[in-house]
Predict the 3D structure of the following.
Amino acid sequence: MTIRVRRVAAACALGAALTACGAPSAPHASRPAPSAPTAAVSSRPPTLAPGPAGLTPVFKNGPRVDGKTVALTFDADMTADEGPRAAKGEHFDNPQLISTLRTLKVPATVFMTGRWADEYPAEARAIGRDPQFEIANHSYSHYAFTGDCYGLPTVSPDRMKADVERAYTAFKKAGVPNAMPYFRFPGGCYDRQALKTLSAVGVTAVQWDVVSGDAFATDSDAVAQQVLEGVKPGSVVVMHCTRSAAPATEKAVRMIVPELRKKGYRFVKVSELIGAADRHR
C-alpha cells in the first residue's frame, strides 16, 4: 500500500507499495460488511457511528486509557493492472509473514484488495478462515480515491462505491466467509467527497497512528525501531506483507513482537480497538 493521509495527522511518503499475505487455518465467525456474505446480527463487528452530515467515520487509534493494546495491520495490495507482473513471477504475497504471525500468536487485521484475492484465492481463503486474523477492505483496484496520491491511478467518484463492493465480491468468490465492514483508502488518501460517497456502503474507514516505514525498506532494524518508538496504548500500526515491495517486514515483526510484549503490550485486531472506542463515546 502507498501511504498518505489527507485531513488527518501523520502524513507519510511510503510510495505505491504493493503487498500481500497467505497460509491455511480454521473458520472465522463474524458479521460481514455491507455487500459481503450475511451472518447473524448478534455477531456483527463493531463500527463507528457516521460522522457529521452522515460522512463515513474515520478511525485512527483506540483509546489510550484501556490498557496497553496495539493492532498490527498489514496491507495486501495489488493494483488492478498488475496482473502481467504477477504472471512474470513477481510475488505480491508473503506466506512466511503470515506463518510468523501464527507462530508468535499475534492476531492481526489484513486490509486486502479484491485484485489480490483474485490472484491468491487460496491464501485469501486461508487467512479469512483463520480466527487469528480478520480481513478488511482495501478497495478492489488499489486506485486512489483522491487526486495526487503517490502517483496512483485514480477511481472516479461515480465508481468508488462499486470498487469497494467489488472487493467484497472478490473476497466471497475466494471463500472468505466474513470480511469486516472496515475500509482502508489506497495510499491513505481521502477527502470529504470520498467520505460522502462511501457513506452508502456502511463501512468505517481505518487509518493509523504509527507508520512502520516498511514499504520498499531493506533494513529490518530500522523498521522495528520506528514501530517501537511510535507505539502508544491503542495504536494502529500500518505495515505490509509482500515479498516484492516490503521484503524487510517479516524479520521486523520478529523483533517488534517480543519487545512490545516485554513492555506489557497485548496484540489485538482492529475490531477490538474500534469496539473499545465505541464504548468510550
